[in-house]
């Protein structure tokens, strides 16, 4: 990419208002994780609900002021996707960093599209969408290998989340946590939150690997299927409650990141 084009992309994506909206995207991510954690806790205690992004967005829509919150999420996720895209195109020097920034841009863009669907009164079943996509991939040449590769990739991402939490590497993403009690609270929220999200993602990856092994796309699943799979294990209620609390804490950390993130 030419130097002038890269500089233009950087200027467009680095306006102050884009940074503010991108920070709102981190806050929106925090809100989604808090709601997912809350739904997961209800499931652990015998209640119902879909403990994934679609379930969280549906819950927000039915809450007082939910329509406004959903539109804030849409704008925040789109701005955050733009911010990450600029980093991928004209920011980081290392290819691996560009790939990571590009992947984050895609994730936030998908979140923005999903939130937009709910904000307009629509919606989607996240688990059914995952099953359908897995079935489509399995129908392709070497489809089972591709599904297994996706599972291994998600497992790796989950493992990295656990490592990032335990090692406190997530603090590198922050300018400061304010020091004192506030700083310690953010550190603990990030430490537990990243580890809990990593466990949930690792289970998602395992579900994809099992689906590929058994050639059954319905064995695959997203966050909701992963969390409910945890509840079926020995001491599953306690395990799911711990992960649910961890997801809430990840949301709390995301609120702090909205303010203190290195942008």
UniProtKB/TrEMBL annotation:
Name by which UniProt lists this protein: Membrane protein
InterPro entries linked to this entry: DUF1206
Keyword Transmembrane helix attributed: yes
Keywords linked to the UniProt accession: Membrane, Transmembrane, Transmembrane helix
Domain DUF1206: 24-90, 103-166, 192-260
Transmembrane segment boundaries: 20-45, 65-85, 105-122, 142-163, 194-215, 235-256
Residues in coiled coil: none
